[in-house]
Amino acid sequence: MAGVSPTPLLKDELDIVIPTIRNLDFLEMWRPFFQPYHLIIVQDGDPSKTIKVPEGFDYELYNRNDINRILGPKASCISFKDSACRCFGYMVSKKKYIYTIDDDCFVAKDPSGKDINALEQHIKNILSPATPYFFNTLYDPYRDGADFVRGYPFSLREGVPTAVSHGLWLNIPDYDAPTQLVKPRERNTRYVDAVMTIPKGTLFPMCGMNLAFNRELIGPAMYFGLMGDGQPIGRYDDMWAGWCTKVICDHLGLGIKTGLPYIWHSKASNPFVNLKKEYKGIYWQEEIIPFFQAVSLPKECTTVQQCYTELAKQVKAKLANVDPYFTKLADAMVTWIEAWDELNPSGEAPAKTSNVKAK
Amino acid sequence: MAQVNIRDDEVDIVIGALHLDLTSFMEDWRAVFSRFHLIIVQDPDLKGDLKIPGGFSFDVYMKSDIESVVGSSSSSVVFSGYSCRYFGYLVSHKKYIISIDDDCIPAKDDKGELIDAVAQHITNLMTPATPFFFNTLYDPFRKGTDFVRGYPFSLRSGVQCGLSCGLWLNLADYDAPTQALKPGQRNSRFVDAVLTVPARAMLPVSGINIGFDRELVGPAMVPAFRLAKEGKFRWETVEDIWSGMCVKVICDHLGYGVKSGLPYVWRNERGNAVESLKKEWEGVKLMEEVVPFFQSMRLSQGAVTAEDCVIEMAAAVKERLEPLDPVFARASEAMVEWVKLWKVVTSRLSNSAA
């Protein structure tokens, strides 16, 4: 197509972070799209189990022993027996961009039957600006074939940097347990050909199944919380990260996009198991959401770490009376930032960890 | 595929006639329009008799009708050009109004099926909106979808939808500079979604293809923002952008929702963007002031009806925008006048209703 420049691969600037407890067979289907990239595998659960990575991928793999070794006492902020552990991968990455995907997500087809290169679409989303200050009714104006509509002020047409690209899922939709119980057969078959910026001041439920972000712009905010073993809650890891990230993006003038690309979500988790994990979250989110909607960060907070530390303070002050869990979580948020800064000192060459395995 | 039962007597289709011969327009829409009552308002600047085919239930309003309601002395509310349709909103007594520009015809969806734009607008208006939290699968009330994990349960009943903003295939609603820069660009992307525009997020509402709940937001659909050189092409107006943002601010304040997305209409080629560009820059420049004004507009607790809200907004326009350009002084006056007219006409209608 004349005039359309190809999307850069960014193969030396992007890491793919995959949490897994089972196996990585799904990577075979992704091989045509993922093979150029470096993978960071975060192995959850029993560290004595060996997770086989398909041949030909360049990767580093971390199990619980590695996490404990690298972080020492700070490892307490990384969840165990929950895919929330994936955020360890964000922390040890040295790249500018992260793409994270679940191990039950496969390549989807677009309406013409063509395989969707999800990573390429995420890159397009992330490399073009976002428009959080005024809603464009034709969605992402930077997409081919679209533009800003009549009435859209010219002063807002430069947009802001895109920090996060939130992709969607065909087949098994990301429903909570009650909805899954009521509609066990519902499948998402609707391909919505749009990418859009979530307006400033609006919160959304961020799903970690198919997510890309600019690690340099927003990485420290992508803490997936305390979930799983020993914790009273699960399946709210990505939600928590999304609410923190959105508030901080709004404060720092960064954008978050949602929509394309789609992946094919193949596995429906057990709704009864999910209900037990989510149960407290369903009640707590009624308090959590108003908290995030009302959060105001002081203008002195100009870095992500400062914003996040301030947020942790406010979580402790305002949510502790909902449940003592939030005090633990606030402390873990601080630990996370400390660990992030230790592993990613600014201005120096990043510390090398020894889990890199060559092709 | 309607999920709701549309009562024909709850709907008026209001058409602003900027062209005399409506034959092909009406024939193209016959399958969709014929079950409803139509209000056709002839642009007072358009001389001659309208040509309307048979088989429709409609009322026509012309310059003389407008003058008998509004008075022939100069009023700050001007019903000419695209704004003639607002007269139709004024005299309707139905709950739902659908309005489509007379240069648009039914579009086809991604499966090649003709889109019933009226049914889709009504479905949008009759199902709840969800402005307080963004649902990543878009409208959760559509068949085959729902609220996603992480969506607070207390927000799942939604609120009433006040306005439904549709889209356009072929000639999209771009401003003149954009279309002049990309003369060949046509919108061919069918996005199969309806979504609620979140509370406090502003948007440019295009009047080309809309539906609204007259009972909820009628008084907020103000024909107030007339450019000095407003013309008969959409590129030469911004009246709908203004009234749309009034409606959005008021919906946000009163707790109603605004949806955007489906339905699409097919917009025919008309006009020359470069010619319009030579003639009219004013609208584009004024948006720089208009948008921040609406983004920061806050209404008082005491404003509990759409009419109250419009009056408050008119005062704010006068105070904050009037010094910038005379168009704002006219807008403020027109908003106040519109509310007065609305009250007079609606009370007259309810007095005479059987």
Automatic annotation (TrEMBL), chain A:
Gene name on record? LOC113716660
UniProt-annotated site: Required for activity, residues? R150, R157
Provide the protein's localization: Golgi apparatus
What's a single GO CC term here?
A: Golgi apparatus
> Which InterPro entries does the entry mention?
Nucleotide-diphossugar_trans (IPR029044), RGP (IPR004901), RGP_fam (IPR037595)
| Enzyme class, broadest EC rank | isomerase
- What is the protein named? UDP-arabinopyranose mutase
Single annotated GO MF = UDP-arabinopyranose mutase activity
In terms of Pfam families, this protein maps to:
RGP (PF03214)
EC numbers listed for it are 5.4.99.30
Reactions mediated catalytically:
UDP-beta-L-arabinofuranose = UDP-beta-L-arabinopyranose
Keywords, alphabetical: Cell wall biogenesis/degradation, Glycoprotein, Golgi apparatus, Isomerase
Give a short account of what the protein does. Probable UDP-L-arabinose mutase involved in the biosynthesis of cell wall non-cellulosic polysaccharides.
Any Gene Ontology biological process: plant-type cell wall organization or biogenesis
Q: Which stretch is the leader sequence?
A: none
Q: What is its main location?
A: Golgi
What's the family?
Belongs to the RGP family.
Automatic annotation (TrEMBL), chain B:
Q: Where does the record say this protein resides? A: Golgi apparatus
- Swiss-Prot/TrEMBL keywords: Cell wall biogenesis/degradation, Golgi apparatus
The record's annotation in Pfam families points to: RGP (PF03214)
| Coiled coil location | none
- Main location, first listed in the record: Golgi
Q: Which family does it belong to?
A: Belongs to the RGP family.
Give the protein name, as stated in the record: Probable UDP-arabinopyranose mutase 5 isoform X1
